[in-house]
Each structure stands twice: as structure tokens, then as C-alpha cells.
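In the current project phase, we have settled on a layout for protein records. A sample record is reproduced below.
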Amino acid sequence: MALMSSTFPFPLPLSPIPSSKRHQFPLSLKALIPKSNPNRSAKMVVRAESFQTLVSGAVNLVQSNPPTWQSALLSNLLIFVVGSPILVSGLSLSGIASAFLLGTLTWRAFGPSGFLLVATYFVIGTAATKVKMAQKEAQGVAEKRKGRRGPGSVVGSSAAGCVCALLMINKVGGEAFAQLWRLGFVASFCTKLSDTVSSEIGKAYGRITYLVTTFKVVPRGTEGAVSLEGTFAGLLAAIALAFVACLLGDVTAPEVIVCVIASQIANLGESIIGAVLQEKEGFQWLNNDVVNVINISMGSILAVLMQQLILGH
């Protein structure tokens, strides 16, 4: 049999395929299909199971109750990685390192509720610091580094809280004193947030600023100066953070009132210290960070004393 081609003038023969070779094509196609590797499938299953076990172990570790150092470290690391954009906006690199230590200590002592309280404090405080930043910079009363706090500020803001956390971890006083340390922790951050917000809002919106000791009108940003706008904003900030602590189960409703009152008394004391001693001869060591430690310590101690004397717990 032959076929005429337009390209070739002579016929092209078409020979029939011998019967002995007719099954060679299907066999060659089978050879092109890759064979499944049982060993490879088994390895993939093992890897998936290992990953699932790792994730499950991490979740169980984070949910450890009571918290452990391992759960505190892992939880803090995960949160810091996710929240790094917010952290960078409010802290310097060394400040972030200090905050990481604070977060780990807080989680170990008070668990997720304590950590969320500190996170709430940081977000509100950072937002208040950023309010009218350009105006504050023009007036020379803005925080350094665009409001990004360093390690000194972190320590000054959390020293009393860290002491309460260590007392809680070491179970000083046992269960009978556990709520006292928790209350002191909450009150210290209510005090510091109230101080930060009152200062920053006062510098941004305060129309008239008075020196707390003489009620003499002074420029914004003067040590020991207060304004009506800033004082009211600071009071609201203390109420808000104490309310969050109550929702998280860290303090009771009566203790919310204790924290707010203690924070306002402590802030008044801090303003008096600033007006009388800060930046005066012989007190050059009394910088803002040292005053902050005194301030939050007063707030924490006052809250504990008020709980004992007024609430009678």
C-alpha cells in the first residue's frame, strides 16, 4: 500500500505493523508514568504529624496555667513579632528589649490578663504622646526621638509593677497576699498612664498651665505644672485602665475606685516633687525616670494601704 505526497513525487509506502510489535507502544507509555514512592509518602506523613505535634505543644505551652517561664517567653516572643510595627512606633530598639523583659516577667507573674493590661497601657500612652507632636516639638516640650521611649523610661514606668510581679512569682505572703500584689501592679500602671496622659494632653491642649505649689501661671512643659485639660484627661485614663483591669479579673469593682484615687494622689505628689525639687541645685540626679519610679511606687503603695484600711481585706 502506498500514499502519494505533494512534497515527494514518488509514493510513500505504508507497511503494516507486525503483530509481534503492536503492544510495544502501550508499554512505552506506561514507562512514562512516574511510579509512586511509598517511602516519600511516608516521610511526608511523618513531617505533617511532627509539625502538628509541634504546634499543639506550643499552644499547650502558651495556655499553661499557672504560667511558666517557658510559656511566658514563648507567648511574649510571638506577641512581640506580631506587634513589632506598634512597638517600633513607641519604643527605641533598646526600649523594645527592656519591654520584652517586662512582658516576660508580667506574663510569668500575672498571666495573659496582666500582659494585656500592660499592652493597653502602652497603646494609650503612645497615642497620647503622639498627639500634636509637631506643635510640641516647635514649643520644645515634646518627648525625645519623636516620643519613642528608651530603656530608662520603660524601667521608670514599670519598676513598681516589676516588684509586685517578683513578689507574686515568689509567692511572698502566700495566697493571702496574692491579690495585694495584683492590686499594687494594676495601681502602678494606672498611676503612670494617668501621669503620661495628663502631661501629654496638657502640653497639647492646656490653655492655662499653673504651678501646682503656687498656682502661678507658667509655660507648658514646666516641671510641676498642671492644667485643667490635662488633669481631666489623666483622670479618664486612670479610670479606663482600672476598668480594663476589672474586666480582665485582676481587680474588683471597689478596687477600681482604690486604683483611681491612689493614682491621682500619687500624681499630685509627683507634681509637687517636680515643682519643689526637680532641676534644682543639689537634685540633678532627680531626673524624669527617677521621679517616675517615685510616682508609681506611691500609687502602688497607696492602693495597697487603702485596700487594707478602707476595704478591710
The first strand starts at residue 2 and ends at 3. The first helix runs from residue 24 to 32.
